[in-house]
Amino acid sequence: MSSSADERRARILKAVRELGSVRVVDLADRLAIPAVTVRRDVAALADAGELHRSHGSVALPDSGPSGRTGPGRDRVIGMLVPTVGSYFDEVIAGARSAATAAGARLVLGIAPYEARDDRAQVDRLLESAVDGLLLTPNWRPDQDPDQHDWLGDLPVPAVLVERKALPGSPGAELDAVGSDHRHGVLLALRHLAALGHGTVALAARDDTWTAHQVRTGYAEGVRLLGLEPHPVIETHRPGTPFGLTDSEWSADQLAGAVEQGIRAFIVHNDQDAIQLPPLLRVRGLRVPDDVALISYDDVFAALAAPPLTAVSPPKRTVGATALELLLRRLAAAAPMPGHHLELLPELKIRTSCGGS
């Protein structure tokens, strides 16, 4: 085996260790390796006993009988997420840990935000003979609710993860476990208000379900706390002028708000927030001396310079709770009432707001 094949197969093993059971096609997409090459490498790794193949998915071999004696009893759970590599890695890790503890196996499917092919990915998971589903659909605020009708036709129990269906829609009758993002924004606003800021601006995208929840939480929070509202600063602007990147555009908007007397900002999400301090510094503004900054998500916030105070949704606990709820439903001898569970985020205080 060539050194390049060695390196490629090592990357495959590393990804499977991180993700648990994953479909081969999604593994190929994650690693940016042709699917035919991944299948060949997976076959070699399976022959060597380093991977286990089943129904188009791969996983690490069972470590022993203890992995199959929990309440999951060889249940296979399909999990649909819109992305890996950031926020949902922790949600997946929580679900995977709970599955392992229960003796169940997790099979991962990825429907990228841009693809909008939730149902096609769910159909592929169902072809893997899963017993139940953990679903994070690609829902946008402006989507036609009728596009979600397929949730009412699922042949196996399902739990929505970090999503909540519209009242009266077929998905509204499904179990749901997620973070209370509105409460998370309120925590950030309260902290900045306690530091003396009478106006706090929100910088956020507008093209994801979570961003919509954060925006709604901002509108509710400033009203509840009696703060002066400010129009949301868009962090993603199609056709950004003069060749600016989204981050440069956002930094210009924040600098303009500072000129209007605003000194405190909440930024959704970490990937956008972590790029702002150096860009603001170029514009003569320092965090936290001139600008107080709170990030939303807490995936990378602690790695910023300076480390960012951040709203931290309970990502791992969401994944674990959703998996455990699904297994309880699968094992129930009598009908269970539906569960809509919202878990509260925390505020992780670091140095980007000043004060204490």
Descriptive keywords:
about 350 residues, alpha/beta, Arc Repressor Mutant, subunit A, Rossmann fold, 9-stranded mixed beta sheet, 6-stranded mixed beta sheet, about 40% helix, DNA-binding, Peripla_BP_I, transcription, WH_DNA-bd_sf
Provide a quick synopsis of the model.
The protein has 356 residues and is α/β, with parallel strands linked by helices. Helices cover 38% and strands 17% of the residues.
Set out the fold topology:
Blueprint: H1 3-19, E1 21-23, H2 24-31, H3 35-47, E2 52-54, E3 57-59, E4 76-81, H4 87-102, E5 105-110, H5 118-127, E6 132-135, E7 158-161, E8 175-179, H6 181-194, E9 201-204, H7 209-225, E10 233-234, H8 246-259, E11 264-268, H9 270-273, H10 276-282, E12 292-296, E13 309-312, H11 315-331, E14 340-343, E15 346-348
Parallel strand pairs: 1-5, 4-5, 4-6, 6-7, 7-8, 8-14, 9-10, 9-11, 11-12, 12-13
Antiparallel strand pairs: 1-3, 2-3, 13-15
Helix pairs in contact: 1-3, 2-3, 4-11, 6-7
